[in-house]
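User: Here's a chain of 138 residues. Predict its fold as tokens.
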Amino acid sequence: MQYVPVLSADGKPLMPCHPARARELVRKGRAVRRFRKGFFYIRLLNRTDGEVQPVACGIDPGSKWEAFSIVGPKRTYLNLHIDAVTHVKENVEKRRMLRRNRRYRKTPNRKPRFNRARGGIPPSTRRGGGGNSGLLGF
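Assistant: Prediction complete.
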């Protein structure tokens, strides 16, 4: 069972309440129903302060599913299982192929410098090119 988030009259988050309690508060006119980004919560009309308990948020990022849990010392307030983003691998492969195709076209472009990953010499010092090559006798 998912508990309903509660905001005080001045917008401060309070402890979540049971759905039946939230319905009762709305029916008696002590709270109003609100939605934010698809989540339902209630906002109290006359209460500005309240005791809050420590809660912990757990996140389990997976390859196909992601899980989120909000747990207090006595109960679990929220459990969510959400589809993980799976289109990244295909997009990276597509980007890689487009880049490779651009490199093989007959257009004037700089060749990839594979010596950078190995820590090779910079192009300005290779084959005697550069500003001081005549002085050093290379």
